[in-house]
């Protein structure tokens, strides 16, 4: 039979590529550095080509080494999917499931969703990770999380996307700060009166798009790093902002002299779950998304 690389050798190769250091890769694999180096050398001998150039304490992957890494990543994903498939078939929604959630969703539903899932799926060990959309997509691609909950639209072409609900935006103002009602065009609001989060937060982009704000003179140049700062600007009657219904239903305006104007039909973001197309846990993920979808829809309903 043809002498083929082992799964373990490919896993070691991916570890070296990730850490760019033999010592750190060995620690991550819980083996000695000599064992790791020997495994990589045997892999190179099996393939008949050099994958890594070594010089003193530095290393660099060769061109063919980079290509092998990409193929190895797919092989490991496919192998994991076989194991996940059989486990999911025997025990649906059991074991560990790591779900990444962006801050502008996690702030409002992470805790109650965690409790609801614990009650619904007793055998499931749900682990939540809060991070930005870009970081979660990177973690998902490299297998560090199983699923991600994002606000859409977003660039998720590599993954399967399941839309769960529409989360409408409302204009939020101080009770003593007057704006015309109804508002036909948000761009006609007073100059520099609209306060938003930093551009790094996808909620800003979704609010601009959903409310058809074109970065006109009504947008204040100040960008808040968090929702607490954002709402404080509105509390001091400096202007208005836009919040999703999920945040309002979670009580973010309680105890504050702020009101939310009824949302417009076209002004919304979508909440979605995404996962790798190669996963063997599709059955699990669909069951999970059906439950979470019902829960999220309830959190996004106008009250």
Automatic annotation (TrEMBL):
Keyword Glycoprotein tagged: no
Family per similarity comment: Belongs to the LysR transcriptional regulatory family.
SUPFAM superfamilies hit by this protein: Periplasmic binding protein-like II (SSF53850), Winged helix' DNA-binding domain (SSF46785)
GO MF term set: DNA binding; DNA-binding transcription factor activity
Keyword Nucleotide-binding: no
Name of the featured protein: LysR family transcriptional regulator
Positions of the HTH lysR-type domain: 5-62
Cellular component, GO annotation: protein-DNA complex
Top-level taxon of origin: Bacteria
Annotated keywords: DNA-binding, Transcription, Transcription regulation
């Amino acid at each position: 039979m043809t002498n083929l690389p082992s799964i373990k050798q490919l896993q070691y190769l991916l570890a070296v590529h990730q850490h760019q250091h033999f010592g750190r890769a060995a620690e991550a694999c819980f083996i000695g550095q000599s064992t790791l180096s020997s495994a990589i050398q045997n892999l190179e001998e099996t393939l008949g080509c050099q994958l890594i150039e070594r010089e003193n304490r530095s290393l660099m992957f060769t061109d063919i080494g980079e290509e092998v890494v990409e193929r190895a990543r797919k092989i490991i994903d496919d192998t994991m999917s076989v194991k996940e498939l059989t486990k999911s078939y025997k025990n649906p929604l059991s074991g560990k499931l790591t779900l990444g959630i962006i801050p502008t969703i996690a702030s409002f539903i992470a805790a109650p969703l965690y409790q609801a899932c614990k009650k619904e799926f007793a055998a499931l060990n749900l682990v939540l990770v809060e991070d930005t959309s870009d970081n979660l997509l990177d973690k998902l691609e490299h297998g560090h999380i199983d699923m991600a909950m994002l606000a859409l639209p977003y660039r998720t072409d590599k993954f399967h996307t399941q839309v769960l609900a529409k989360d409408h935006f409302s204009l939020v103002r101080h009770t003593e700060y007057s704006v015309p009602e109804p508002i036909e065009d948000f761009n006609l609001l007073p100059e520099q009166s609209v306060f938003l989060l930093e551009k790094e937060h996808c909620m800003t982009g979704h609010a601009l798009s959903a409310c058809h704000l074109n970065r006109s003179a009504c947008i204040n140049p100040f960008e808040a790093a968090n929702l607490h700062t954002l709402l404080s600007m509105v509390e001091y009657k400096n202007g208005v902002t836009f919040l999703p219904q999920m945040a309002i239903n979670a009580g973010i305006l309680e105890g504050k002299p702020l009101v939310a104007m009824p949302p417009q039909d076209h002004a919304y973001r979508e909440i979605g779950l995404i996962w790798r197309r190669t996963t063997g846990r599709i059955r699990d993920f669909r069951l999970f998304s059906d439950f979470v979808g019902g829960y999220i829809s309830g959190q996004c309903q106008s009250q």
